[in-house]
Input
Amino acid sequence: MDILPDFSRTTHIVDPDDHHLFVSIGCATENLAIAAAAAGRPGEARIDPEGLVHFAYSAGPSRSDPLFAAIPRRQSTRSEYDSRAIAAADLETLRKAAEEPGVRLVLLTERVRIDQVRDLVIAGNTAQMQDPAFMAELKQWLRFNPRSAIEAGDGLFAAASGNPVLPDSLGRLAFDTFFTAAGESDKYARQIDSSAGIAVFLGEREDKAHWIAVGRACQRFALAATALGLKHAFVNQPVEVAPLRSDLAALVGEPGVRPDVVMRFGYGRDLPFSPRRPVDDVLVAASDAQAPDGAAPRRTA
Output
């Protein structure tokens, strides 16, 4: 099975170099590897320089894996957590789960350093929300009610962020009226203050293969957190706003390295899931995977 990027669904403003796209491919690759091994079809992923993933299966015994069981339960839980500390043994479980060649993980649990990341997140959020193009792109991916979420099969469902469900017309009006930099910054501050820790992932090199490797490590971290009863959510503003990357790298002791992913984690309640497209919508036949002229694939496989 090949896992291919779908360039028709890129987010050009928040992700102009497709960094997040290839990190996401890494997450999908890790899910596939975990599920295949659990089903008795273990395999290896080969990544070419353009970021295309070829997963070759073999035969083996099926085996139980808590990470496999966590796949359908994992979610990015965008809410306040309960501020409880995490046991050292569980932090070590998270660290080991994320081990991946070419990827570094920095876990921050000291409140002073978490506060420093919070300040970078707020600075990044402010910069993004002052950009009309960013706001237009964000609004395009919001789904204000269940009908819109189900019809689109993608995007961020309002209830998945703890926001009220509204008709589309009222949702767009509320977004334009009440969605402010100050309000969002205050929300992010509360959410990070309530979190037990921050995880920062860094690839050793700035290329697609390492971005995919970061995605694999990040996904195992997220699944291990889910298996431990922990919640997590991305706070990637210091990664997405380029001038803040060096500040974040210095903060985590990795000057000169581009940070790839920032996640907060802790104990919290479940939120609704965002709907996703049916499996058939993201599968393509081998003959359709690459157009004859070398154009990008139409969909992700």
